[in-house]
Amino acid sequence: MNLTQAEEGKEYIITGIETDDEEMDAFLFSLGCYSGEPITVVSRKKHSCVVSIKDGRYNIDNQLAAAILI
Hints:
By secondary structure, this protein is an alpha+beta fold. The chain has helices at 22-30, 62-67; strands at residues 11-13, 16-17, 38-44, 48-53, 56-61, 68-69.
């Protein structure tokens, strides 16, 4: 399951990042988004969602959210 299918307000553990794009992978890693880290979808918008990773909140688009496996 990926992050686009997650329920709002529920904490999940990231199981992996599924992308062939090294830039996207590096960007997600810089946010603290990697295997074993908890992640929560705070809210959803039409083409993006707000997630909480560690002590930060980030607005990521659905393409990034689809690459994050939970």
